[in-house]
């Protein structure tokens, strides 16, 4: 009668020992990007001692846009916040801004997903990337950026010579009135002549101003002011400088100061972003005839500063 209880005790002891001997199931590898878990269909993987991560999920999480060219098996990524272009051939070279990267790391295709060695995240985009084998977590942190303190905005504008000429005429007229009757008559005739000349000069100047303001980009800025939504832009400030090429080689600026819009011709001091672009190309982009991403990757225009602010501008337009 005592053998049965003893058997049960021994059975449970062996069961507990067996369960304790089985290691806990390892958690699936995950990616933490800037403190947040990155949702991706394909998790990180370790192959031959190398940690591989899904390129599209990671690069898009870091603010890049990607394009896949199937004939050449090439991935092109452009990240506006660092003004960086990465070209990566599957199983081949890696280029950053056109310069070949000195690395042995290569991308591969896994279940139709481009997987890249973890070090490439740091070598191409400058982000800190680490793999913790104990908890099966890849940690990626964007390169630190600081917000510069800009000096006051200075707009270059020509002097108003017409006003100076008019002031001179008025002073001459006052002096003439203090002279004798005969001198008054002569002064009146001279004054009339000078006024006619000044009026002609003013008309010529106005004609030149109207001609300058009739450019396509000026018309775009006028339309921008009509379509701007200050309520949406409340609290937002940025300075945009446009350096136009082609037939209309002029400088224009767009300034948003705490939700208030200012535009015009000239140069703004210390802009947040400077776009050097052909006038017609920009008009084609804003009208939807040209894709901005394709044009940027084809080096049709250059951006100096934070290009993401250009996309931000679109949020405040009707």
TrEMBL record:
Biased composition regions of type Acidic residues, renumbered to the chain: 162-211
Organism: Desulfotruncus arcticus DSM 17038
Signal peptide: 1-26
Pfam families linked: Cu_amine_oxidN1, SCP2
CC annotations in GO: cytosol
Keywords assigned: Signal
Residue span(s) of domain Copper amine oxidase-like N-terminal: 32-140
Keyword rRNA processing: no
Keyword set includes Signal: yes
Protein name per the record: Copper amine oxidase N-terminal domain-containing protein
Region (Disordered): 161-214
Start and end residues of each SCP2 domain: 222-317
Classification via InterPro entries: Cu_amine_oxidase-like_N, Mao_N_sf, SCP2_sterol-bd_dom, SCP2_sterol-bd_dom_sf
């Amino acid at each position: 009668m005592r053998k049965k209880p003893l058997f049960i005790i021994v059975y449970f002891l062996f069961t507990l020992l067996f369960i304790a001997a089985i290691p806990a199931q390892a958690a699936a590898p995950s990616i933490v990007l800037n403190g947040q878990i990155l949702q991706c269909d394909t998790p990180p993987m370790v192959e031959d001692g190398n940690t591989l991560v899904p390129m599209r999920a990671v690069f898009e999480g870091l603010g890049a846009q990607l394009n896949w060219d199937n004939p050449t098996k090439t991935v092109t990524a452009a990240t506006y916040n660092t003004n960086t272009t990465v070209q990566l051939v599957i199983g081949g070279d890696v280029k950053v801004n056109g310069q070949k990267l000195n690395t042995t790391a290569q991308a591969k295709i896994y279940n139709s997903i481009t997987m890249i060695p973890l070090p490439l995240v740091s070598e191409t985009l400058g982000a800190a990337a680490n793999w913790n084998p104990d908890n099966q977590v890849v940690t990626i942190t964007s390169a630190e950026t600081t917000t510069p303190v800009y000096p006051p905005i200075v707009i270059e504008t020509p002097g108003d010579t017409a006003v100076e000429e008019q002031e001179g005429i008025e002073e001459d007229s006052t002096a003439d009135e203090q002279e004798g009757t005969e001198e008054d008559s002569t002064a009146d005739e001279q004054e009339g002549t000078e006024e006619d000349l000044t009026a002609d000069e003013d008309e010529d100047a106005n004609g030149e101003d109207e001609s300058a303001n009739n450019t396509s980009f000026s018309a775009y800025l006028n339309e921008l002011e009509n379509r701007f939504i200050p309520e949406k832009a409340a609290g937002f400030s940025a300075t945009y400088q446009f350096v136009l090429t082609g037939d209309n080689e002029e400088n224009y600026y767009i300034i948003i100061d705490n939700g208030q819009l200012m535009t015009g011709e000239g140069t703004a001091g210390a802009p947040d972003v400077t776009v050097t672009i052909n006038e017609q190309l920009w008009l084609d982009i804003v009208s939807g005839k040209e894709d901005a991403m394709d044009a940027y990757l084809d080096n049709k225009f250059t951006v100096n500063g934070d290009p993401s602010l250009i996309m931000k501008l679109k949020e405040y337009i009707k």
